[in-house]
Design goal:
The protein is mostly helical. The chain is 89% helix and 0% strand. It contains 2 helices and no strands. It is rod-shaped, with a radius of gyration of 27 Å.
Length: 61
Amino acid sequence: MKKFLIRFIRDEQGQDLVEYALIVAAIGLALIATVNQVSAAIVSLYSSIAQGLTTIGTSGQ
């Protein structure tokens, strides 16, 4: 039993998979944060353009 526990503690098999999963999770979180910020900027730009077109249409006549 003691040998089994020592071998189990020293076993590093599967460690790479966990590291890759953590890297993918970190990249995913960064992408989600970036997309949220970019989408807010696009919505703001679209609203600004729509408001500008509205004012041009009403003041042009």
